[in-house]
Amino acid sequence: MRTIAALVVLAASAMASCPNLCSGNGRCGADDKCTCYRGYTGTDCSGRKCPYGKAWVEGSAEDPHSFAECSNKGVCERASGMCSCYEGYEGTACHRSTCPGACSGHGVCRYIEELSTNYAEFNWDTTKIQGCDCDAGFTGLDCASRLCPIGDDPMTVAPSLNGQRWTVSVDFHGGFPTTAEIHLDIGNLEDGSTVSTRPINILANSTAPFEKTLLDTGVIKSIASSTVDYSESGVVYTFTLQDPLRLSFVRNRWESDCTVAGCQPRKLAPVPKDALEAGAAFVSEEPHVKAESARCSNRGTCDPASGTCGCYEGFYGRACQYQTVLI
């Protein structure tokens, strides 16, 4: 009878050797230690693991941005296996920064690599840090402020009311392409928006299609003059705006917006290979004195809540661009 009781005690001790019998989420091994199944953790395997992401801080000694649970910017809820992110971070693994005020409903949250044309794609935080890309007419870190109208300062006199003169140069780098296209991004200084041109055939030795492509964007209202200098080494376009300055930038990209059915937003499709071999297009503005395009014409204050100008005494107009009395 005593022998049987001893065996029962030994059996019970063996069964209870691992903490909580590894909670049914692992197996009991040597030294009474649990080896947890995938997705579970803890001495008794009772806790769930949370998603991992590149650590914002304090990764490993070798790599401070190695993968870490909740990206080291949140607390893992072991009961559910979900991350509770610290303020300013979001995502299943707290792997993204949040956008200020959710862009106030007037913009789109984008990764830093999408907001900057010069950000290296191999940086560790290209798909982690986010910022607001404001809708046309809005500005600010959270897109909460409205843009006010721009105009020419009535207290200054410009020798010419022509706008900017832009030069678009394409160097063929010794190789003469059989077909090549460029796309230009044009910044509208008035409302802060960016529009893209249709493909521009750089082999067309004519200013007419080039001008039409620019005017079709709707940002450029009229062109005072344009020229094209075409040779086997490259092509140079120049165009001068009739209106006072209204462009914040003109820049080239050798990619076009994806138009294939099922294409995901913001995905880009490359242009033909020989276009890439043609060389980059360099865009520059020719320095010359021109009319200002200043918010409220430098003669009023901008109300960011309404996007309207409060003109100083002696000035009026939507952009305070007119003078009523001599001062």
Automatic annotation (TrEMBL):
<feature type="disulfide bond">
    <location>
        <begin position="18"/>
        <end position="28"/>
    </location>
</feature>
<feature type="disulfide bond">
    <location>
        <begin position="85"/>
        <end position="94"/>
    </location>
</feature>
<feature type="domain" description="EGF-like">
    <location>
        <begin position="14"/>
        <end position="46"/>
    </location>
</feature>
<dbReference type="Pfam" id="PF07974">
    <property type="entry name" value="EGF_2"/>
</dbReference>
<feature type="disulfide bond">
    <location>
        <begin position="36"/>
        <end position="45"/>
    </location>
</feature>
<dbReference type="InterPro" id="IPR000742">
    <property type="entry name" value="EGF"/>
</dbReference>
<dbReference type="InterPro" id="IPR050969">
    <property type="entry name" value="Dev_Signal_Modulators"/>
</dbReference>
<feature type="domain" description="EGF-like">
    <location>
        <begin position="61"/>
        <end position="95"/>
    </location>
</feature>
<protein>
    <recommendedName>
        <fullName>EGF-like domain-containing protein</fullName>
    </recommendedName>
</protein>
<keyword id="KW-1015">Disulfide bond</keyword>
<keyword id="KW-0245">EGF-like domain</keyword>
<dbReference type="InterPro" id="IPR013111">
    <property type="entry name" value="EGF_extracell"/>
</dbReference>
<keyword id="KW-0732">Signal</keyword>
<feature type="signal peptide">
    <location>
        <begin position="1"/>
        <end position="16"/>
    </location>
</feature>
<dbReference type="Pfam" id="PF23106">
    <property type="entry name" value="EGF_Teneurin"/>
</dbReference>
